[in-house]
């Protein structure tokens, strides 16, 4: 008899645990089912599709908003720019946090990676640092280096077109390192590049869903620290990264003291810190804040430059229009500069269309809501993960007729010219957008002024998935000088760039 009561008690306890731990719908908006149902939906859409393509399929079936559970976690997908604006921007006070990544952000990152940090005091200090270094005004200081590096990029692509990926990555890495520390990267073997790549790879491994028990059971953090077996290796890596980032900051301070530094985020913020402008910010926060552009800016900028090459090859008539504008405004005796940008409206529209046509972060970084919110009569619960489905928004035929086509002319509509959707939403939008657009302008302007891009048309829909970032599938091309004078102008600029870039070594 006692055994029977024990069995009954176990069944009752199991029932209580099931009720407590099962996902709660909270009357989620357009709820489309549990994990089994989601698996069927994803399976019904073509296999090997990227997450944004799956979400696009859900939007076509269920409309501009839908929700489901992944395990116990409620997930909401916004596929309408109107809804994304209403929630992620207008209600940014509650939609600006991030899903918690205990191992990746809290432990390995020490809570210092602003991109994935929760919305709060630390994130506000971090954002202030990013704005100081990459606002529209601040980025003007980086134009000289971007111009010099763009010249080297064209020289290297002309010589080694088959190595375009590494060449473009090197360019992108050098730009963000110069923004952070006022120095360049002459190769991908640069110590700062290698250290940052290793850091990103470790972070991505730590963020892999289901890899670490503590992400599912945060109560493990209540254990005495020495008994938290899951964190010891990550703590050592964080200590090593902290030491390295502080050393880079110290190197900038030494160059400042010697009067040989180039203006950069580190120099600006060190000066501001010395003057008491960053209340509550310590050197460790500063070191991680200054290091942030690498993780967010290298793959994204490089991916956009690759997509520019794809667009040029797939839409030659558009490329001819850009070249015609460049020739009319600039002539054939010099390469374009940033001073030409205001008088090149078609090129500006080309770049706007580029980031619309192929946004390199199609789902942005997911948001998290910090309190229950009523949307369309349904409840998005506190802690829900909210995706802004940029991919689908950029393919909205009501906003962008013939969305699959590359049509810069659509941005003759002035209402679209200030569109920032490809760079994220509200308070968590990309702080490096101005830097990225400057890099795209100087590279594309100089590329099309100097060269024809020759080769078989790549498949514009084929891509490589790098987590949140996508880039084009590998393609082949060569560069052919438009005329002899173009090549002579480039050679002259390359000689100047090689000399001048020694100042950033």
From TrEMBL:
GO molecular function: heme binding; iron ion binding; monooxygenase activity; oxidoreductase activity, acting on paired donors, with incorporation or reduction of molecular oxygen
Highest taxon, organism lineage: Eukaryota
Cofactor(s) the record lists: heme
Pathway: Secondary metabolite biosynthesis
Pfam families membership: p450
Keywords on record: Heme, Iron, Metal-binding, Monooxygenase, Oxidoreductase
Signal peptide segment: none
InterPro entries to which the protein is assigned, alphabetical: Cyt_P450, Cyt_P450_CS, Cyt_P450_E_grp-I, Cyt_P450_sf, Cytochrome_P450_fung
CDD domains reported for this sequence: CYP64-like
Family to which this protein belongs: Belongs to the cytochrome P450 family.
Protein name: Cytochrome P450
UniProt lineage: Eukaryota, Fungi, Dikarya, Basidiomycota, Agaricomycotina
């Amino acid at each position: 008899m006692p055994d029977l009561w024990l069995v009954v008690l176990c069944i009752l306890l199991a029932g209580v645990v099931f009720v407590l731990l099962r996902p709660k719908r909270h009357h989620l908006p357009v709820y489309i089912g549990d994990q089994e149902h989601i698996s069927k939906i994803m399976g019904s859409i073509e296999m090997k599709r990227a997450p944004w393509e799956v979400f696009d399929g859900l939007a076509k079936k269920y409309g501009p908003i839908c929700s489901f559970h992944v395990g116990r976690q409620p997930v909401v997908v916004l596929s309408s720019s109107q809804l994304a604006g209403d929630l992620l921007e207008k209600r940014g006070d509650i939609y600006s946090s991030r899903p918690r990544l205990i191992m990746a952000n809290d432990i390995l990152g020490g809570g210092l990676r602003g991109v994935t940090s929760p919305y709060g005091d630390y994130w506000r200090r971090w954002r202030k640092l990013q704005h100081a270094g990459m606002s529209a005004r601040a980025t003007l200081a980086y134009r000289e280096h971007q111009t010099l590096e763009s010249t080297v990029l064209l020289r290297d692509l002309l010589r080694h077109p088959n190595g375009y990926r590494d060449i473009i990555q090197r360019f992108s890495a050098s730009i963000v390192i110069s923004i952070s520390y006022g120095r360049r990267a002459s190769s991908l073997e640069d110590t700062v590049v290698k250290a940052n790549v290793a850091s990103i790879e470790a972070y991505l491994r730590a963020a892999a869903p289901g890899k670490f028990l503590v992400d599912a059971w945060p109560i493990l953090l209540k254990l005495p620290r020495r008994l938290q077996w899951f964190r010891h290796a990550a703590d050592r890596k964080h200590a090593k990264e902290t030491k390295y980032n502080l050393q880079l900051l110290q190197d900038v301070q030494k160059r400042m003291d010697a009067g040989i530094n180039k203006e950069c985020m580190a120099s600006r913020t060190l000066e501001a810190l010395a003057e008491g402008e960053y209340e509550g910010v310590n050197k460790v926060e500063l070191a991680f804040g200054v290091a942030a552009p690498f993780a967010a800016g290298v793959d994204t900028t490089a991916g956009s430059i690759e997509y520019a090459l794809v667009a040029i090859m797939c839409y030659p008539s558009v490329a001819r229009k850009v070249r015609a504008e460049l020739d009319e405004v600039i002539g054939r005796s010099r390469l374009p500069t940033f001073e030409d940008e205001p008088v090149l409206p078609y090129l500006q529209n080309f770049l706007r269309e580029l980031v619309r046509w192929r946004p390199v972060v199609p789902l942005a970084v997911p948001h998290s809501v910090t309190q229950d919110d009523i949307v369309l009569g349904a409840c998005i619960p506190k802690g829900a993960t909210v995706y802004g489905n940029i991919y689908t928004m950029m393919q909205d035929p009501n906003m962008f007729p013939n969305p699959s086509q590359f049509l810069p002319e659509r941005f003759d509509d002035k209402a679209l010219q200030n569109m920032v959707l490809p760079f994220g939403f509200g308070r968590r939008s990309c702080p490096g957008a101005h830097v990225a657009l400057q890099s795209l302008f100087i590279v594309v302007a100089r590329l099309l002024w100097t060269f024809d891009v020759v080769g078989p048309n790549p498949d514009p829909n084929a891509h490589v998935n790098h987590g949140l970032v996508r880039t084009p599938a590998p393609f082949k091309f060569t560069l052919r000088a438009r005329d002899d004078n173009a090549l002579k102008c480039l050679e002259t600029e390359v000689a100047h760039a090689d000399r001048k870039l020694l100042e950033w070594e």
